[in-house]
């Protein structure tokens, strides 16, 4: 399985997933919870970010239990690509015990069996891929369900339909010998990436971190603004020899609050003499969906090139597999 081919197929995933037969909810809930881990949880983060007109509290749960205030009028989206993620299964059982309205998104496994047994809504997505390369399959049904249920506007469908061609047009650019993702990967090689975003764009930074971790087997750190300016900015000093190995990445979106943009500029100036270097990235695209996926796709390619520089297999995740094996005993 070739990671580059898996990255290239993300636009096709979104096109396919737009055609999925997704369910709808006939009542607006007080809250929506999405329970999942890794790529499944990121899909909820990204959906929430893209659906900026959603006026229902939408909370991503990366744990075994729902919060005490989750109740039967709320919706639980239980997401697990494999269908066997133990945290997602635990959250599903918790939601079921509270008589919540449940939607399952999975490719199979125990979660699909439980959804079918208990007559829950479910969307069965294609199987056989590493979960982190199935973002299109995991993300799109969330948005489509919210549109179909009347929770957000129909313009999101039009934005999703334009997204695959927008992303395909990035292939040549991102795969050229002097591409931006390759340039960034070279800067991160043998350095410690620290990724900064606004609070609203935090899911994009989290995707970058996770992809660098899993694909390149490399450490990465993320922090959001303005919180960074109230603590971390003071810590980018010691130990000096470690801080000098940091490479800071600032990701900015046009819709970020103006004070956040101002904080970015001043922070870059204040830390530039302490860190190895700084890369400032601006989002691109005509819609929030395009801008978000431009940054996500850029990060996916960065992690791929960084894996190649470290001579790592970007598909294999031996430590995660071994941990799951030990936990299954």
Automatic annotation (TrEMBL):
Molecular-function GO term, any one: carbohydrate derivative binding
CDD domains in the record: SIS_PGI_PMI_1 (cd05017), SIS_PGI_PMI_2 (cd05637)
Gene Ontology biological process: carbohydrate derivative metabolic process; carbohydrate metabolic process
Keyword flag Isomerase: yes
Pfam (any one): bact-PGI_C
PROSITE patterns tied to this protein: SIS
The entry's keywords: Isomerase
Superkingdom to which the source organism belongs: Bacteria
SIS domain ranges (all copies): 21-151
Family listed: Belongs to the PGI/PMI family.
Name used for this protein in its record: Bifunctional phosphoglucose/phosphomannose isomerase
Organism per entry: candidate division WOR-3 bacterium
